[in-house]
Amino acid sequence: MSPLNIQKGASKHSAYDLRDPNAEVIETHTLAVIVDNESGVLARVIGLFSARGYNIDSLTVAEVDHLGHLSRITVVTSGTPQVIVQIKAQLERMVVVHRVHDLTMEGPNVQRELALFKVKGRGEARIEALRLAEIFRANVVDSTLESFVFEMTGTPQKVDAFAELMQPLGLIEVARTGVAAISRGV
Question: Where does the record place the ACT domain (predicted)?
Fold first, then answer.
């Protein structure tokens, strides 16, 4: 039997593929949680995640209704579909929570993140960093003879891509706000 025939009859799965074919898929969801704007609420909401071992990929919080004293917590989290359902149910049971919107399930949404990048460099690396910043529409918000601070807004994927390209050019520090998201349409 030729090697070609062996490959044709071989299983489609590699012996080195250790993933459990029966394991549930891990999904990433963006949740918008409207809560009372009072002391300790953020700690209680985040405590729900940490107490149960749920992961938080991104977290942003801001007051959105001054008169109603409401804040919006935007959480990007990941887990199996069952875990996501549990997270939403447990959030909805909290007294301080008014509404939970799963933006991922509700349809198209817009996500943006603000990031600052400090890049150290001279010569060609400095010129290349400026060229890439222009392509990514990043603004120079601080400059010295040896470094730049770039400001960029975009999707988390765009921010990740810019950081990856800046790494070999002298990236020394990154500050990110976390995801702000809102559903599209009415």
Answer: 30-105
